[in-house]
Specification:
- By secondary structure, this protein is mostly helical.
- It has a domain at 89-188.
- It is 83% helix and 0% strand.
- The chain contains eleven helices and no strands.
- The protein has helices at 2-6, 9-25, 29-46, 49-65, 69-86, 89-105, 109-126, 132-149, 151-162, 166-173, 177-188.
- Helix 5 packs parallel to helix 11 (177-188).
- It is globular, with a radius of gyration of 17 Å.
């Protein structure tokens, strides 16, 4: 990697993250995790909160795909809070979509539908859209939720999610004991 020859830590961390994306796309989660961890370490060394959040987000996806829902939740929480701190709205909304997929994987279908509804609406609000691979996962999960709940039972949580503001959606995603603790720390200024 040319970035290594140039000792460009930002470039190296980006390259590692991109290689992690490729490994994840091929289903090689172990390799993706190693690459994301190495990228995260460099980003932490640089103090780049936005990219730290992105690395945590990616590690959360890997943990979820490997069935480690507790680890995925912890990583998504930290990522979501950091995206919020730096004001990166696309990262927040993409993070909420991953929360929805986590809820779906855990069998919390109505919660997932609310978060997907919020994500759908918030992408419109910020004038953005999901990355193609994420959109495919999202569409597949939504179709499965519609079938599982039935159209009538699906409609209410979908509408509730679509009505959420960005802050309401963040609070809803973090609505767990650990999430409440993260929000409390953020409000007292003790989160790093």
């Amino acid at each position: 990697m040319l970035y290594r020859q140039l000792e460009d830590k930002q470039g190296i961390s980006l390259g590692l993250s991109n290689l992690g994306e490729a490994a994840r796309g091929q289903g090689d989660y172990a390799r993706a995790a190693v690459l994301y961890q190495e990228s995260l370490a460099l980003r932490q060394e640089q103090g780049d909160k936005g990219n730290i959040a992105a690395s945590l987000h990616n590690l959360g996806i890997v943990a979820r795909e490997q069935g480690d829902y507790q680890q995925a939740e912890a990583l998504f929480k930290e990522s979501l809070i950091l995206f919020r701190v730096v004001g990166y709205r696309w990262g927040i909304v993409a993070g909420l979509a991953e929360w929805a997929e986590l809820a779906n994987a855990k069998g919390q279908v109505k919660r997932a539908v609310r978060l997907f509804g919020a994500t759908d609406s918030l992408y419109e609000v910020i004038g953005a859209h999901a990355e193609p691979a994420a959109r495919v996962r999202y569409e597949r999960a939504m179709a499965a939720a519609r079938v599982q709940l039935g159209e009538t039972a699906f409609a209410a949580p979908w509408a509730e999610g679509r009505a959420m503001t960005l802050e309401q959606a963040i609070a809803y995603a973090l609505e767990t004991d650990q999430g409440t603790e993260v929000l409390r720390k953020e409000q007292t200024g003790k989160i790093t």
